[in-house]
Write a structure and sequence with these properties.
Blueprint: E1 2-6, E2 9-12, E3 17-24, E4 32-38, E5 45-50, E6 59-61, E7 69-74, E8 79-84, E9 93-100, E10 115-116, E11 120-125
Parallel strand pairs: 2-11
Antiparallel strand pairs: 1-3, 3-8, 4-5, 4-9, 5-6, 7-8, 9-10, 9-11
């Protein structure tokens, strides 16, 4: 199983980026795929998830990104996207995607995910 995150970069405040998480080696549609981020000196935190079909194919966001970030998935392409608009310096972090089959109450927990991709750096300058 491989997850590959891409799309990070350097943008100014207010800019946009679209991250991609491409998966291989698993039946993609049966997994919940989640974006986490980790800023320097901070713990990894939940950003957004797109749950698997068995959990209703729902989307969830952490409060700080609601209205700015949009998660989507294309099961035919085994890819999940994170469209990030109105970026702020506080969004600066390494963004990683993870796949797993957590229950809904655990979707934001790092420990709930079995498969992880390498992160992609997002830097937002002020």
């Amino acid at each position: 199983v491989q997850l590959q995150a891409s799309g990070g970069g350097l943008v100014h405040t207010g800019g946009s980026l679209r991250l991609s998480c491409a998966a291989s080696g698993l039946t993609f549609s049966t997994y919940t795929v989640t974006w986490f981020r980790q800023a320097p000196g901070k713990e990894r935190e939940f950003v957004s998830t797109f749950t698997r079909r068995e959990n209703g194919a729902r989307t969830y966001y952490t409060d700080s990104v609601k209205g700015r970030f949009t998660i989507s998935r294309d099961n035919a392409r085994n890819t999940v996207y994170l469209q990030m608009n109105s970026l702020k310096p506080d969004d600066t972090a390494v963004y990683s995607c993870a796949a797993g089959v957590p229950v809904l109450s655990a979707i934001s927990r790092v420990s709930a995910y079995r498969y992880w991709g390498r992160g992609t750096q997002v830097t937002v300058s002020s």
